[in-house]
Specification:
It contains three helices and seven strands; from the N terminus they run αααβββββββ. The protein is an alpha/beta fold.
Length: 204
């Protein structure tokens, strides 16, 4: 190759490199910001033109999980979950009876007889029972209305429900009381739904 050809080749390569650099910076100036859709002129899209939809489609095609915007469904689910959590009462005794635990077979059975909700009728059967510390007491509600077995003399007792509480036991359902954490002594109890229903449990 002659000297003229070498000079021509060098000039062509120089022009190509210069053109490539110019194109790179030119595209960098007009390229849109990530997550922001614009016109070719660089003007932002008007509001409500489906910018979120376009961004979501671009993210899904790119396969980047981290850049996916939160969808309306996800936000709605979160709101529903928060609303549900807000509406849950703090006191478990006003909900339903706790399910039986794995503390072993019951050492005693405490029944709530049919008609116990009527004042003057027998409230608990037996209304006075004796157990050993650590025993499990099965509680069966044979009445047609909900009841509880809650420690304390009545609803004004400052310690009510702190030692044991079955929560609400619906008609025909059952619950249990575990005496593992109870010290020997006498513990009065009552129904938080019908405070005139009372009984006594003695722990040996």
């Amino acid at each position: 190759m002659g000297s003229t050809g070498k000079v021509a080749l060098s000039v062509i390569m120089g022009i190509g490199a210069f053109t490539g650099i110019l194109c790179y910076y030119a595209f960098a100036l007009v390229a849109p910001e990530p997550g922001e859709m614009t016109f070719v002129t660089g003007e932002p899209l008007p509001e409500g033109s489906g910018q979120t939809t376009a961004s979501s489609s671009a993210s899904e095609v790119g396969g980047s999980e981290g850049n996916k915007p939160q969808t309306t469904t996800a936000n709605t689910s979160a709101e529903i979950g928060n609303a549900t959590a807000t509406n849950v009462p703090d006191n478990d005794s006003s909900t339903t009876a706790s399910p039986p635990s794995d503390a072993g077979p019951p050492a005693a059975i405490l029944k709530i007889p049919q008609g116990a909700s009527v004042q003057g009728n027998p409230s608990y059967d037996p209304d006075s029972l004796t157990v050993k510390a650590g025993d499990t007491i099965a509680v069966d509600n044979e009445d047609s209305t909900p009841h509880t077995v809650t420690n304390g003399k009545d609803a004004t007792d400052p310690n009510m429900g702190k030692l044991f509480d079955t929560s609400i036991i619906n008609a025909g359902d059952s619950s249990e009381i575990v005496t593992t954490d109870l010290q020997p002594g006498e513990y009065p109890f009552f129904c938080s739904v019908h405070p005139y229903m009372t009984g006594t449990m003695t722990v040996q």
